[in-house]
Amino acid sequence: MALKGAEIMKMLPKTNCKECGYPTCFAFAMKLATGGANLEDCPHLDPQVRAQLEAAMAPPIKLVTIGAGENALAIGEEEVMFRHEKTFFHESGIAILISDKESESDIEKKLKRIKAFDFERIGQKLKIDLLALCFESGDKGKFEALVKKAYETTNFALILICEDTDVLFSAASLCADRKPLVYPITKDNTSAAIPKLKELGVPAGVKGQSIEALTSVTSELKDAGIEDMLLDPGSKNMLEGIRDQTLIRRAALKKGFRPLGYPTIAFPCFMYQDRFKETLAAAALMIKYAGIVVLSQAEAQFLLPLLVHRFNIYSDPRRPMTVEEKAYEIGNPGENSPVLISTNYALDYFIVSAAIEEANIPAYLCIKDTEGLGVMAAWTSGKFNGEAIAEFFEKYAMADKVKHRKLIIPGVAKKLVAELEEELPGWEIILGPLEGSDIPKFLSEEWKA
Amino acid sequence: MKYEPPLEKISVNIRETVLGQGEKSVKIGGENTLPFHSFEGSLPNSAGLALEVLDTQPENWAPSVLEPFEDVVSDPVKWAKKCVEVYGAEMLCLRLLSTDPMGKDRSPEEAAEITKKVTDAVDVPFIVWGTDMEDKDAQVLMQVARVCSGKNLLLGPVVKGNYEKIAKAALEHGHAVVAQASMDANLTKELNIALCKFFPPEKIVVDPTASALGYGLEYTFSIIEEIKQFGLVDKDKMMQMPILCDFGGDCWRTKEAKESREQGILWEAISGITFLLAGANLLVFRHPESLKLIKEMVI
Predict the structure, then answer these.
(1) How far apart are CA A208 and CA A282, in angstroms?
(2) What is the CATH number of the domain that holds B92?
(3) Mean pLDDT across chain B, nearest whole number?
(4) Residues B37, B265 contacting (CB under 8 angstroms)
(5) For residues A161 and A132, is the Cβ–Cβ distance under 8 A?
(6) B83 partner at 20 to 30 Å CA-CA among A89, A254, A314, B179?
(7) What share of chain B has pLDDT > 90, as a percent?
């Protein structure tokens, strides 16, 4: 729970010395409470009080980074239970499980597939974040070989899963600079793990049989100065996962309960044998707060829906999603292809472009930058009026792209017809259907160059 | 620091709506907690999971979603029977596509006749859906209400422009209605208030309109979460109706769903689980496999 300005004020020197740049200690306290100022700016703060304040003002869920370099995954620092209250900030990481029991050729194939997985959708790169390497063979040499292979031949962030604490840390030392997550740290191996965690500086995946069991381990680690942790409450299926993840986030955010103030990890790969169910559980647990979900497989037809889902859930509801302004070529349009125009509000774009694809009639889809406003709002604010659209036509030389002079505009934009007839002399302005779903029919029945 | 589970008790319930009649009737809603929060409240009814039946041959369906129905698509009665007998559907959604004035433009009388035949053939509850054409839907659904009097059908969509006509017929003949307001919690509430002036609130299901994964899913998700919270947390009586999501068709129209069977099923199932997590009480699926997956996961 964030501290209020008045609470911070009580701990400040109250001298109003102005050295922090604010006129009074109270003004400084208010600024601190909203995150606009830094404690360092007060030169007269007792170090002990500063430490207390820092602890109290720390985000309720710690930001934890796994991995290093450009593939590092940072999760945590979430602020809300429901995305409409603000937004979810740090996308859940997606990890693919590889066991050292799998044959070398299978491992090779899996790695190859994961590395090749490169999907782009509306300018967004969709990607896998981590490899979860699992010790199941009982052979330390095999596990280390797997860890080395993943470390040396890929750039993914790593999770090391091994019940044998010695083997776990021995493997971690092979890739410590990659900051792998070591898992599981439990009540039984905490004291053995603490010196190793400190020595290697790697984050700890804490596992408990229940939420309560987690708290004693996280408290012990915290007391030892270790704060980079992820929590696994040991949920056995999707419904338990929803319950456990909800209670952990609620305890951290609404009760300010520090021992649970860390991001989480969930293992759909161990909950379900069925790949569909595993994927569905992962989708559900991404919504319900898992910082990382671990999957058993990396097949595109299972991953793509999940990646698109993550992109949807983690999009910021405070900002309308937009797409780039340009004259999109859908299919392979030519000089007789229809020309349509819409706003750069992402939903408008998705619907219209999908409808054109469905119609199977190549077309130019002009997407005008309206700062994410939909048709009528953009028209009202002058971003999608006759003048703005005429400018777009000039800029993208639409008159050179097609021989005909017909422009299809959104069906709701009746008011645009007259404006465009004036601004785009020579062009026939055609009012399209009201619903995006009627576009295919409209194009196939009405379109003639 | 001792951990106490931070449980939150809610003192009001979502209204319980009964659909259909007799042994196979289905109850939805009735919960006094957020979706799947059985650890802190009561969810007496699992979500209603309905399969779609069209009154006419489907057009442009992806092969992988046509395949389960291939032998029955020419006959809505056989189609409905297959959904129930083979795919175990506990509810159906009959879509009166052929009444579309821009398409076949079948008359309200014909549509009601088909509806009667199909709903007589199987004993599960039915949602009966128009074509989103306000005036035509009003004529069609009023006629359906009369001809299927007493069957407790769920008629929709009922919108601002036609709610009076349809809801009056539904009231007179013992049916429930789906109040539809597009992606806006305030409009949902306004329509409920207008309806409740003469229509029983426990016979209203709301439809905030659903968008498929990748095509606006997050808007639907958040609108449903908001409506649920207005109802349960803020105790707003006009926001306590069960929520319907009709999304299967939209999922299977996406290019991603058409790319492969597995991807299509997941496209629909992920959308479904997302809406359930937001608080939906009734889902309309197109593919029996997606419905089955969800059913097995949530029970």
Answers:
(1) 20
(2) 3.20.20.20
(3) 96
(4) no
(5) yes
(6) B179
(7) 92
CB contact under 8 A, A312 and B254: no
Number of domains in chain B: 1
Q: Hey, which CATH number is domain A326-446, 3.40.50.11600, 3.40.50.1110, 3.40.50.720, 3.40.50.1000? A: 3.40.50.11600
Nearest to A286 by CA among A267, A262, A308, A310: A310
Q: Which residues contact A8 (CB under 8 A, 6 or more apart)?
A: A29, A32, A33, A53, A57
Find residues 166-225 of chain B whose CB sits inside 8 Å of chain A: 211, 213-219, 221-222, 225
- Set of chain A residues whose Cβ sits within 8 Å of the Cβ of B183: none
How many residues appear in chain A?
449
Q: Does the CA dihedral B133-B136-B139-B141 come out positive or negative?
A: negative
The structure tokens listed for A7 are 């609470």
B6·A251 Cβ contact <8 A: yes
Position A119 pLDDT exceeds 90: no
Q: Which of B6, B266, B294 sits opposite A247 (nearest CB)?
A: B6
The model's confidence at residue B130, banded by pLDDT at 50, 70 and 90, is: very high
Contacts of B269 in chain A (CB under 8 A): 276, 280
pLDDT > 50? residue A1 = no
Q: Residue A73's pLDDT is what?
A: 97
Q: pLDDT tens digits, residue range B222-249? A: 999 999 999 999 999 999 999 999 999 9
Q: What is the mean pLDDT of residues B265-292?
A: 98
Res A93 pLDDT > 70: yes
Domain A5-57, CATH number (from 3.30.9.10, 3.40.50.20, 2.40.128.110, 1.10.15.40): 1.10.15.40
Considering only the beta carbons, identify the residue of B222, B254, B260 that sits closest to A301: B260
Residue A3, pLDDT > 70, answer yes
pLDDT of A2 reads 61
Instruction: For strands A181-185 and A157-161, give the pairing.
Output: parallel
- For residue A191, the surrounding DSSP H or E stretch is helix A190-200
Q: What is the pLDDT of residue A384?
A: 93
Is the confidence at residue A281, as pLDDT, over 90? yes
Q: Which residues of B touch A239 (CB under 8 A)?
A: 36, 38, 298
C-alpha distances out from residue B260 to A66, A133, A302, B65, Å? 34, 29, 10, 10
Tell me: the pLDDT tens digits for A232-249? 999 999 999 999 999 999
SS3 B145: helix
Locate A361 and state its tokens. Answer: 């009639």
